[in-house]
Structures are given as C-alpha cells and as structure tokens.
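Below is one such protein, fold included:
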Amino acid sequence: MILVILSAAGCATMDKDECLVADWRLIGFQDGAQGKSAATIGAYRKDCADYHVAPDLDAYQAGRREGLLQYCVPANGYRLGAAGRAYNAVCPTGMERSFRAAYNTGHDIYQARTRVNSTSSLINRKQQAIQSLEADKQDKLAEMIRQGLSSERRVMLLYDITNIEKDIHTTNTDISALQRDLEQQQAQLDYLLDISAY
C-alpha cells in the first residue's frame, strides 16, 4: 500500500488501485515537498474520475501545505537555482522572500558556471581546429617537396598554406580573447561562490 501511494505521488497519473487506496494528505505532502503546483490535484481528479473516486481536496491541500514547509527553505531554493531548475512560485507568502533570494543566488551561480563552461568548450573547439589546420599545413608542406610536382600545383599549395596560416593566426587571436573572457568569467564565478551563504 505504501508503494502504491508513493508511486501515485511521484507523478500526476493514477490507476484504479492507486485511486482507491490513496492517502490524499500524504500525496499532498509529497507534492508540496517536491514543489509541485496546486494544479496537480486536477490531474489526479481527472484520473480518478474514471473510477468514480474524488480526491479529498481538504486533505490534499493540508498535506501540500505541510510539504511546502519542507520545500520552501532557503537551502532548497539555492540548490534549485544552482541546478538551473525552474521555480514555480509555490511558496507561501511568509517563506517566498527568503526562498526566492536563495534561489536567485543559486541561479546566478548556475548562469556564471554555464558561461565558464561554454567559453571553455569554445576554446577547446578552437584549439582542436588549430590542430586540424596545422595537420593540413604539414600535409601540404610535405607535398611541396615531392619530386615531379608541377609549378602550377606548387603555386596552389603555397596559396593554400598562406590561407591556412591566416586561419591559424585568426583562431589564435580568437582564443586569446576567449581566454581573457574566461578569466573574467571565472573570477565572477569565484566571487559569487565566495559571497554565497550556502
């Protein structure tokens, strides 16, 4: 029976057995503790209507209020924000402000960390592009010293090598600018982590 109740609370769909044995206060508590919207009861009502079972709205709401007391603590708001998850504005008025402040702190850190990771990935991709360009350049240089190479082909290879060197220079310039950005982004992330109370 406990397993049935837990599975019912884990998602907004219920089968006949779950509807018949539902502990609506417990389901409400678990939904509240997970920060689910009050509208979740509507999905239960729809599911259980097929079996002529009506949810106990008062019990569900009482349980959900109790669950929200666990969910709406600042430490949880911070974790939610730092994980980049959305907040559904479910907290009671008296808890909303501190929860939202902690959520915003965590979300700022999430965004700063995302910028650092994105810039690091871009630098890595550009470094890989340079390696590919360097390999292409070496192949063309090797071809240039082959015996019997026509002068037209040699001129084309020189042209290609010049363009590759320009691409390498441009990409290295991009990397230098990105590395400066990354230093600033990392400093911002470190600062946010340092001033965070969580």
Remarks:
- The domain at 110-195 is CATH 1.10.287 (Helix Hairpins).
- Residues 29 and 42 are 16 Å apart (CA to CA).
